[in-house]
């Protein structure tokens, strides 16, 4: 009798795992094809060859680009090259990317930049916050931007027990930010199991010098994060759930979920159009091609614009879509005065005049 009960429980467990695997496979959009949507005035950014995972554009038109991310399970074309931060001036007629120098005293050989966010102080000093993965761990690095020297001065490394598997960051004030955790486990294999089993153990954390706390949880994979222009709302991408969480921000850093915008593609990083308040999302239309990279059939790229975010029916439109023939593995898009930069996890970057 015990053997029969054990076999019954085993069979039920295997059936449950199989159902979860089938649901996970459906999430990967295996059969989805990209219908091309490509603005006419676009070209690849010269000098960026090994990724442009996140982009943050200042109100002045200076764009910071993180490059060279080494991420478990993702392709990497330069595994022995340290990461870099590039700068582009979008006010120039033909803007070019320039790698910024980083001050002495910072271990550049271990620099593995992921999500980035800028903060402008009252005296107009620009600070760049970078999610870094030295030895595949997670820290947040604070740099001061020296515009005349085109350099970054390293000020501080932030570590905390809650800063694990950090993906993206949005800065609100001096040493005050939200950060996302995209997986609970650190190894690629266990992260894959985590996604198949739909564990939802990921979260958003609030960091300040006085308090560090989890302010939202229950995500499949909390990824990109950004804030509305008035800083009243925070937007979080759950990449595996194919949605964007819209949350109200409170003065103490807590977040209250207002709604979830469901999409048909895997959402990576988020930015906000400062002129309209629209969300721009870098997306992965066929992520299976990321996990099993084939240069003959590369992953495509997709950028969505979400309008009227707080309304009952936000408008969703495709700004850019390509099957990988031009741009592979789009992770972010950011706009400035009719110009758009599209970044990728491991590939190139695209500059468009809209």
From TrEMBL:
Q: What are the UniProt keywords, alphabetically? A: Calcium, Disulfide bond, Glycoprotein, Hydrolase, Metal-binding, Signal
Cofactor comment: Binds 2 calcium ions per subunit.
Q: Which InterPro entries match?
A: 6-blade_b-propeller_TolB-like (IPR011042), Arylesterase (IPR002640), Serum_paraoxonase/arylesterase (IPR051288)
In this record, what's one Pfam family? Arylesterase
State its cofactor.
Ca(2+)
Enumerate the SUPFAM superfamilies for this protein.
Calcium-dependent phosphotriesterase
**Would you indicate the residue range of the signal peptide?**
1-19
Which reaction is recorded as catalysed by this protein? an N-acyl-L-homoserine lactone + H2O = an N-acyl-L-homoserine + H(+); a phenyl acetate + H2O = a phenol + acetate + H(+)
Entry's EC annotation: 3.1.1.2
Asked if the keyword Thylakoid belongs to this entry, the reply reads no
Q: Of which family is this protein a member?
A: Belongs to the paraoxonase family.
Which protein, by its recorded name, is this? Paraoxonase
